[in-house]
Amino acid sequence: MLSHETAGELHRLVDRPADLIYVTIPRERRIVAAEGVSIYRSARAVEAVQRHTYPPRTKIEETVLDLTQTAATFDDVCGWVTRAIARDLTDETRLRAAMSMRPKLRWRADLYELIAAAAAGDHSALEYRYDRDVERAHGLPKARRQVPFTSPRGRRGRRDRVYEEYATVVELDGRLAHPEDSQWKDKARDNAATMAGMQTLRYGWTQVRREPCQVAVEVATVLAKQGWRGRPRACSHGCPAPRAFP
Q1: Which of the residues 2, 19, 118, 171 has the least number of beta carbons within 10 Å of its own beta carbon?
Q2: pLDDT at 190 over 80
């Protein structure tokens, strides 16, 4: 059956075709892969196949878990899980059931946390990192996730994180590049928030991944100006957030 990135492409989980075609066969089989084909062997091949598909492929839940097991980084693991749930390809219950069928699973504890976070509204690895490393780690108020809005011109969209009580929006941009049309969409979204009387902060991969404590200080400072009476706490020994907070 087709599996991993190739099955992911058929399930609309993978946006770009992989260089190789990935195929999974029963563990007892022995075949030589043709050029351009990568073979995986699995003891669960019969259980993993999606019935009545042509060409045969692994179920979406099995595909997601397969991809997490071959992922090079934790951010890649986050990406597969959040994308699958955000695109309504599967859900928390089905992914957890698929996990229970695998006695050996890398990242198991992290996957349980990731799946719950994605089901609650995390749409990307960057959003997951913000919630874990910035918001929760530093004791900030809990923001609403993926909040729908309509601009004065009638355009609809979603704001990544909204601290409604403190009229503050945090937008998280995981794109590696900003096409010009995306920049204008970002500006329009920020302008709409400003017109609604809300402060907007925008962060990308570099800030959230490498400087989560500084991001926490900046968010906490804006929240405090908007009425929050708390203070950021240290996420670890040596965390500068409490000292840097005004």
Answers
A1: 19
A2: no
